[in-house]
Design a protein that fits this description.
Low-confidence stretches: none
Structural class: alpha/beta
Radius of gyration: 23 Å
Mean pLDDT: 89
Number of strands: 19
Shape: globular
Largest sheet: 6 strands, parallel
Number of helices: 13
Bound molecules: iron/sulfur cluster
Oligomer: single chain
Length: 448
């Protein structure tokens, strides 16, 4: 066993991956290097997510695999971090006593101390709700050197009945604007050209900040405008917004900030007003469609992706027809479609009238078929146009280069190109989830 290697497994959403960058950064700053082989590792960290289905089973399945390793090598440190650590707390070490450290989402900056203490004092757990610590302030081990996530807030003040986030991440806490700008400026100086501003409810940024002069409190539109001024950045993205917080000022800031990309993720969840109410989403279908119209008018060419949940408790065939109707009208470029499954700890898990699985499956298939058709139509509209694309590297199968438009469309190119390069690509064919293109010389008209 090498004395100083760590293995880090990440199970979840972008916020979770962002936390993993910080976990990796802290372990590297402590002199460790990553490995993919558990038998080489001195520290194994499972960074968990409570949002995904079967999260508990995956965690305890992984811990089960680590048990014989820990028995053979008592010096191995097993760490459970992330949302499940925050949610399950002491239950984790009850079920898996070979876990050395349980570290909650708010306590991440204490990871190295907890590891050291576990060597002398036995198993450790820290799930306290620190309010003065922000994971973004920690060193990061990033996968790419040309793009980065920047956390602007954590937690959420909403109470959607299907969502575990408020329970595991707590109320919203925004990071001071100056800290965010300092991080973005530092990244740009090191050659990062694309950043994604990250928050569970990103466009509610700033609502919780207090300043001596309340009128001076920066909000999300101010943040976009200020980040747009950072020298060297070419692309700014953000996720995940709540439709309710897409104020006129946010739309105006997007339209006037040239580096803010023409793409938003705009979660619908359901097209039925009755279901939206049961989900405690604050908008209704007509209002949602009205926002889409305003955004598309203000930012021509913008691409919009969404989330839709099928089979929420009590969803009738009529409710589902409303969802199909809104999806048909909205003509999203892409959609993440989910079959509802109860997450322990959420209000909706206690609702009666859970929809039978075979009904959920059948509705899900109809929704996917509709969205696939729309996605292909939207992709086909791009054929013949030329876009500036940012090269991300080889595709997963190693057969082509993968690049991305400002509108977040994936473009496969035949030419081998270095990650981080900007090139112009003319689109030659369309598929529901990607485009294929060819590199063209830097002349002519570039579409958004
Ligand atoms: S707004 Fe998003 S993060 Fe907040 S409770 Fe609703 S789904 Fe969860």
């Amino acid at each position: 066993m090498a004395a100083s290697r760590y293995l880090l497994r990440t199970f979840g959403c972008q916020m979770n991956e962002h936390d993993s960058e910080r976990i990796g950064g802290m372990l590297r700053s402590d002199g460790m290097t990553p490995t993919g082989d558990p038998s080489e590792a001195r520290v194994v960290v499972l960074n968990t997510c409570a949002i995904r289905e079967n999260a508990d089973n995956r965690l305890y399945g992984n811990l089960g695999h680590l048990k014989p390793l820990k028995e053979r090598n008592p010096d191995l440190r097993v760490v459970v971090a992330g949302c499940l650590a925050q949610k399950d707390q002491g239950r984790i070490q009850e079920r898996a006593p070979w876990v050395d450290v349980v570290v909650g989402t708010h306590a991440l900056p204490h990871l190295l101390d907890l590891l050291r203490l576990s060597e002398t004092d036995g198993p450790q757990m820290d799930v306290r709700e620190y309010t003065d610590l922000f994971p973004s302030a920690l060193p990061a081990a990033r996968e790419d050197d040309f793009r980065a996530w920047v956390s602007v807030s954590v937690g959420c003040d909403n109470a959607c009945t299907f969502c575990i986030v408020p329970l595991v991440r707590g109320a919203q806490r925004s990071r001071p604007l100056g800290d965010i700008l300092a991080e973005v400026q530092g990244l740009a100086r090191r050659g990062v050209v694309e950043i994604t501003l990250l928050g569970q409810n990103v466009n509610a940024y700033g609502r919780d900040l207090t300043t001596p002069d309340r009128s001076g409190r920066p909000l999300f539109a101010d943040l976009l405008r200020r980040v747009n001024e950072v020298e060297g950045l070419r692309r700014i993205r953000f996720t995940s917004p709540h439709p309710h917080d897409f104020t006129q000022d946010v739309i105006a800031a997007m339209a006037e900030s040239e580096n803010v990309c023409e793409h938003i993720h705009f979660p619908l969840q359901s097209g039925s007003d009755r279901v939206l109410k049961a989900m405690r989403r604050s908008y209704r279908r007509d209002r949602y469609l009205g926002w889409l119209d305003r955004i598309r008018k203000a930012v021509p060419g913008i691409a919009i992706s969404t989330d839709v949940i099928v089979g929420f408790p009590g969803e009738t065939e009529g409710d589902f027809a409303d969802t199909l109707d809104v999806v048909g009208r909205a003509r999203f470029e892409s959609a993440y479609t989910f079959q509802y499954s109860a997450r322990p700890g959420t209000r909706a898990a206690l609702f009666e009238q859970q929809v039978p699985q075979e009904v959920v499956q059948e509705r899900f298939e109809r929704l996917v078929a509709l969205q696939e058709r729309i996605s292909l139509e939207r992709s086909t509209e791009q054929v013949g146009k030329t876009f500036e694309v940012l090269v991300e590297g080889g595709d997963r199968k190693g057969r082509s280069t993968q690049a991305r438009t400002r509108t977040n469309r994936i473009v496969h190119l035949r030419e081998p190109l270095g990650a981080g390069a900007f090139v112009l690509a003319r689109i030659v064919s369309a598929h529901p989830h990607h485009l294929t293109g060819e590199v063209v010389p830097a002349v002519g008209t570039v579409a958004v």
